[in-house]
């Protein structure tokens, strides 16, 4: 049994979208995933790859790089960028930490981080979708359906991806 109590799912009101309007759509490839190596991030201002710790980068730029690298199948590089973020354990950091753990094969560690992200922000539909997909990988379809019901937005990528995983057993690992 996972740690998120069913009671939390039943009594918490859920917003339709996670923080950030683009969080539920796949990122478009940029120079970060196409040119940069070893967890570096493209800096548009100087038109070069830079280390993610570079002070010119803000956390939003780092977050975009984390998403892009994770979706490009480069979880180790995404984790390097996550480690450079200044916002601490925000729900968006925990969501992508969990995602990179999951796609690295560390599913149980990923599940725990998704639970932390959802506890921090129950309206984080991206965390709920990825958490539900990880539950599908564990054969926990009932719990995955609880996450689907909590998303409550059939138009979102998060809902569609989790629904697809429940129906087919295929998760979004990109």
TrEMBL record:
Keywords tagged on the record: Signal
Keyword Signal on entry: yes
Superkingdom, natural source: Bacteria
Residues making up the signal peptide according to the UniProt record: 1-18
InterPro entries assigned: TPR-like_helical_dom_sf
Protein name (record): Tetratricopeptide repeat protein
Originating organism: Gemmobacter caeni
């Amino acid at each position: 049994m996972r740690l998120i109590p069913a009671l939390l799912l039943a009594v918490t009101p859920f917003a339709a979208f996670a923080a950030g309007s683009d969080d539920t759509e796949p990122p478009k490839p940029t120079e970060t995933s196409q040119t940069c190596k070893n967890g570096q991030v493209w800096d548009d201002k100087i038109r070069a790859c830079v280390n993610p710790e570079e002070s010119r980068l803000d956390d939003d730029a780092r977050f975009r790089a984390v998403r892009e690298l994770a979706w490009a199948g480069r979880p180790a590089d995404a984790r390097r960028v996550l480690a450079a973020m200044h916002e601490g354990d925000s729900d968006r950091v925990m969501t992508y930490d969990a995602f990179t753990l999951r796609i690295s094969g560390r599913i149980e560690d990923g599940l725990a981080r998704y639970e932390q992200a959802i506890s921090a922000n129950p309206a984080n539909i991206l965390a709920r979708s990825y958490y539900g997909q990880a539950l599908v990988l564990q054969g926990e379809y009932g719990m995955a359906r609880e996450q689907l019901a909590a998303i409550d937005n059939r138009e979102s990528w998060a809902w569609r991806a989790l629904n697809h995983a429940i129906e087919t057993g295929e998760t979004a690992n990109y």
